[in-house]
Amino acid sequence: MLQMLFRWYFQIPIYLRLLLTVIFFMFLFGSVMHFVEPVNFPSLFDGLWWAFVTGSTVGYGDFVPNSILGKVIGILMILAGGGIVTYYMVTVASGAVEREKEMDKGNVAYKGKDHVVLIGWNERSRQLLNMINDFKPTEEVVLVDHSLSKSPKHHYHFHFVQGDASLDNTLKKANIPEARHVIITSDQSRPEKQADQLAILSTIAVRGVNPEVPISTEILTKNQIPNAERAGANTVIRSNDFMSTLFFHEVYRAQPVKPFDIMLEQLASQQYNQHELPEEQVGRTFLECSNDYVKKDELLLGIIRKGDVLINPPFQMDLEIGDQLIVLVSLRE
SS3 letters for the chain? Predict the structure, then answer.
């Protein structure tokens, strides 16, 4: 809890940090003065008012301590307002500014956990961050990229780590050992073969640092897919195959339908889930099982049987032990 509060303190704007620091000291001295001299400072607010006026060296004189202890506290208040608080504010301000510069450069290690690590800054990364902000606004995201010299956060909420994702030092700064999921995007500014080699190398490095974390790796050339899987990728995103299929449907469609727009709209609001066939559904027809999912506002699209994907199978097909169900569900819970 204390670590989260400390991290939050240094992430808020610098002026707000300074304001909170001043309020803390003023509240402390004002409270002490109220309890030491309750007659001259009848309310906590009166003590707080005196602390602000004294600490800022304004000195209206409407509240004045009379006892020796009260005057000693007043002296300490003047020293704090004119010396300790000012020095602290300058120290915190300079340290906070320096820390913000280092964070902007991607030199500060991420200390959180259960976060998503996104490797590579490109248009796909931007779109993914937009969707995370829309559907999972509380998600903690760490961006790792070697080509950026400064954080591109703008309106995005994430922690930036600058460096080569194939190096252990960079991955540890992104706290890969505590990550919940790692996404490796392909660097399409490079030739396809070289981009795939870099993605596979990053996959190997991530798997070496965290043997358990799920890894989704984007691969451009089909013959590198087995290598990505051997490197430790749990899911291989075949972006070129996907785009080629969409182009084919666009060229040879018979009806005035735009498959890309439909797929993009659907994937922006829904996702595919894969479930083991429940024991109570064994022996039932695909239609009966589909009706059960419709009642839950989910759409049963097909099944996976012995490695074969069957989309929209015959409604009267009986479901068997070992079948896996492909279900379309809403992203919004």
Answer: CHHHHHHHHHHCCHHHHHHHHHHHHHHHHHHHHHHHCCCCCCCHHHHHHHHHHHHCCCCCCCCCCCCHHHHHHHHHHHHHHHHHHHHHHHHHHHHHHHHHHHHHHCCCCCCCCCCEEEECCCHHHHHHHHHHHHHCCCCCEEEEECCCCCCCCCCCCCEEEECCCCCHHHHHHCCHHHCCEEEECCCCCCCHHHHHHHHHHHHHHHHHHCCCCCEEEEECCHHHHHHHHHHCCCEEEEHHHHHHHHHHHHHHCCCCCCHHHHHHHHHHHEEEEEEECCHHHCCCEHHHHHHHHHCCCCEEEEEEECCEEEECCCCCCECCCCCEEEEEEECCC
Helix axes 239-252, 259-269, angle to 10 degrees: 130
Q: What is the pLDDT of residues 221-259, one digit of tens each?
A: 989 999 999 999 999 988 877 677 767 766 766 665 565
**Contact assessment for residue 153 and residue 160, using Cβ atoms and an 8 Å cutoff:** yes
> pLDDT band for position 134 (50/70/90)?
confident
Averaged pLDDT, 121-141: 87
Mean pLDDT for the stretch of residues 185-197: 90
Alpha helices in 175-329 (DSSP H): 192-209, 225-231, 239-252, 259-269, 286-294
| Band of pLDDT at residue 19, cut at 50, 70 and 90 | confident
